[in-house]
């Protein structure tokens, strides 16, 4: 039977076949198909990614979404992995300010349960601990210092778990790079600064500590990180979507998905003056090495 080939928003979908992995395959190192944005069609989105040679890591932000990430990973024999962790904004109960986060319903305050996460993290397809870190953007007025302390306490527990299980870390940081760098200097851990948002000088510090830098759709519509993308070693860059958020141009304004990670790779190639195939090959190798995929 002839294959049916369809074009969906610039993404090729092949029905009735499982194509061989191409030399242009990519790994979306930070996806959230485990979030409620995909409650109705998460498997459809994952299958579209796999059909287009995109592997993905679903990243947890609380225990519930971490557990869901593991469940997704178990369903697929190839190409779908999980990370488990507690996002710093979920260490307090106030609703998230960003309207787009209505897609994420698990908003209750949570304290990191070391033993529960440890058990979950030992599932075979869990490749990292995270996302974890510090987020000073969402602090409540009048409670800043208290909430910073709480975030740091939960962050340190997760770093300890990563050390115990010898797993890399996926680190979130927003408006807290100085504090984060001081903490990470005390650990010898492999990992990635997901959705990197710092200055070139801060990028250099993370690189010196051995971290990778993750970039997503932001670089397709913001010029703030052009220098970091262009000058950091390609061998230390990862591509991601952070879907359903941060949808890249040309699909900005729509729900993001792993298949769109190719637009991030294309932008990296443009900023570095190299071809897409080189970016795809090197970033995929980087992801395989860091997450032992």
Number of strands: 10
Chain oligomer state? single chain
Order of helices and strands: EEEHEHEHEHEHEHEHHEHH
User: What is the rounded Rg?
Assistant: 18 Å
Category from helices, strands and their pairing: alpha/beta
β-strand percent reads 15-25%
Distance between the termini: 33 Å
Low-confidence stretches: 1-20, 94-106
Average pLDDT over all residues: 90
Helix content: 25-40%
Sheet having the most strands: 8 strands, parallel
**Major beta sheet, strand line-up:** 3-4-5-6-7-8-9-10
- Count of DSSP H/I helices: 10
What is the global morphology? globular
Structural notes for this entry:
The chain has 293 residues and is of the alpha/beta class. The protein contains ten helices and ten strands. Helix 4 links the parallel strand 6 (126-135) and strand 7 (169-174). It is globular, with a radius of gyration of 18 Å.
Question: Descriptors for this entry?
Answer:
293 residues; alpha/beta; 8-stranded parallel sheet; 18% strand; globular; disordered N terminus
Topology at a glance:
Layout: E1 4-8, E2 11-15, E3 26-31, H1 42-51, E4 54-59, H2 63-75, E5 80-84, H3 114-121, E6 126-135, H4 144-165, E7 169-174, H5 177-184, E8 191-193, H6 200-208, E9 212-215, H7 218-221, H8 226-231, E10 237-239, H9 261-272, H10 276-291
Parallel strand pairs: 3-4, 4-5, 5-6, 6-7, 7-8, 8-9, 9-10
Antiparallel strand pairs: 1-2
């Amino acid at each position: 039977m002839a294959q049916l080939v369809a074009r969906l928003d610039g993404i090729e979908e092949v029905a009735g076949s499982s194509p061989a992995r191409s030399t242009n395959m990519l790994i979306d190192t930070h996806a959230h198909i485990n979030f409620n944005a995909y409650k109705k069609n998460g498997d459809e989105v994952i299958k579209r990614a796999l059909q287009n040679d995109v592997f993905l890591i679903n990243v947890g932000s609380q225990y519930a979404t971490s557990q869901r990430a593991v469940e997704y990973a178990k369903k697929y024999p190839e190409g779908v992995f999980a990370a488990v962790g507690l996002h710093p904004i979920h260490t307090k109960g106030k609703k998230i300010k960003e309207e787009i986060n209505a897609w994420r319903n698990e908003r209750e305050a949570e304290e990191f349960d070391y033993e529960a996460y440890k058990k979950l993290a030992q599932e075979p397809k869990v490749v990292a601990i995270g996302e974890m870190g510090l987020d000073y953007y969402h602090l409540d007025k009048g409670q800043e210092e208290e909430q910073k302390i709480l975030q740091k306490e939960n962050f340190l527990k997760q770093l300890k778990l990563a050390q115990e299980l010898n797993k890399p870390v996926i680190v979130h940081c927003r408006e807290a790079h100085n504090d984060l760098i001081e903490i990470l200097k005390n650990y010898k851990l492999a990992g990635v600064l997901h959705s990197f948002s710092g200055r070139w000088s801060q990028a250099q510090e993370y690189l010196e500590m051995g971290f990778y830098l993750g970039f997503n759709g932001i670089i397709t519509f913001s010029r703030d990180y052009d220098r970091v993308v262009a000058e950091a070693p390609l061998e230390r860059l990862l591509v991601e979507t952070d879907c359903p958020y941060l949808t890249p141009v040309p699909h900005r304004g729509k729900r993001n998905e792993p298949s769109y990670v190719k637009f991030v790779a294309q932008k990296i190639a443009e900023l570095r003056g190299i071809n897409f195939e080189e970016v795809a090959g090197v970033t995929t190798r980087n992801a395989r090495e860091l997450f032992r995929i």
